[in-house]
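Is this the right way to post structure tokens for a design question? Let me know if I should format differently. Anyway, here goes:
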């Protein structure tokens, strides 16, 4: 299998950029395993077009009472990939 560790290194678009170029986004939880596709237009209306999901996470809002962490994925390559760099992944998985 090819090494794809650097595939996302320079892909850090804003929400406005993602909507413009047609990249989808999804939110998932590391504990309850829930996933949901994000409506970028609604999120832009809430946080603005210059916001970025890259290296972001928050407490789970997908399942009431879940204490997990939500993280984001993108489908730029036709496959859902985590929207973070290796340093964030190491930090998040460690604690």
């Amino acid at each position: 299998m090819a090494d794809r560790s650097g595939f996302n290194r320079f892909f850090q678009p804003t929400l406005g950029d993602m909507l413009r170029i047609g990249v989808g986004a999804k939110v998932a939880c590391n504990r309850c395993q829930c996933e949901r596709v994000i409506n970028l237009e609604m999120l832009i209306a809430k946080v603005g077009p210059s916001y970025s999901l890259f290296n972001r996470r928050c407490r789970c809002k997908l399942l009431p009472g879940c204490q997990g962490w939500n993280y984001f994925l993108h489908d730029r390559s036709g496959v859902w990939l985590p929207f973070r760099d290796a340093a964030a992944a190491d930090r998040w998985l460690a604690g």
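Format looks fine. Someone answered above. Worth noting: Residues 15-94 form one domain. DSSP finds three helices and five strands in the chain.
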